[in-house]
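User: New here, please read:
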Amino acid sequence: MTDGRQWVTAVIPTGADPRGLGRCIRSLLAGSLVPRILAVADGTDETALAEELKNITVPVTVYRTGRRTGRCHALNCGLHLVQTPAALVISPAAAAGSRMTERLLGAMKDSGSCFAAQARIESREEPGRIESTGTLADAGGSVFRRDRGAYRRTHGEGTVFAPDSRAALFNVRAMEDIGLFDERMCSIAADADLGWRAQRMGGECLYVPDAAARISDSLPEERSQTLSEEELLLGDSLYMMHKNMPALQYRMNGPARAGRIRSLRRQYAAAGREDILEQALQRGRELSLLRVTEEAEREAGASVTRRPLTREAGLETDGMAEGMAAAQDKAAVPVYPLYVGVSIPTVAAEMPALLSLQAQLLRNGRQRRDRDGAPAGPEGKRIKEWKH
């Protein structure tokens, strides 16, 4: 066991229910490289938090946001406090493997352009079933976890489109240049957006299959919004593409976006939920408009208008301010975001990176279709290897 506190700080964001936090910390302390521990209590119940930490015998720094602000804001608060070269972001529902931190840090040190190193995340309840080996996005805006549901390793060590922030190591210095998690997003699109921005700036996310973590299915990630994960993801992904794609690339991928939305319209119409889909689409348009307005203010030399977090996230439009706005006491001082994404100017030297990104988007779309169409084994296990 090596003291790694000069190298790595573990950032663990907890919601209202911190179940699993104690087990997560103990797994990190039992590893071959022991990091500093920083828990970000995002509106966490104090009694439950004390219960989780009562048997932890090493110092644990706890930062309290004071109320529920959302996972991206909690992560950014933690990353702002990190003083080590690397930050291990891990879900409280996850338990780190004995050599996970050491192997992620070793892979990062060996790479000159690595902004993140991704662990292999498996199910705690069903050992052998992969939950994630990173995050992918396709040309239509779908965002999904790579290899989720697979029962065999289909990817060796290499790069992946974006990290899965439930168990990934981040280069703090690189994050200063790339930016943090975009707090307008309330879904896994925030991971894809971060990876997208990093690639446009020359960074890469490494997948380290020998660095393992197990995550509990019975302890789902909490959300403070009333919209479903799918609906939040739809709005976030529309905003992500509008922000990160140059105009020509955005138009070129228009048919893929339109096809995805047509498919969703059929699904929601069959379920009698067309109004919910329209709310999600409207939120995506509102987020894109906020970005355009902000950039126009910046180009005009005016001060950029920063709005409270719920408005920046598009959750106070057309009567949608229920979940997060209710979780934050409206009588209290509003919470403002630490980071919201801006568009990266397109330059000629960036063309190879843009072409690589477009190729990845198309390849990821094929992988998603292969995954969705894979036959299942006698116990519901997928038996077809995904294409690379």
User: Anything to note?
Assistant: The longest strand covers residues 204-215. Residues 229-346 form one domain.
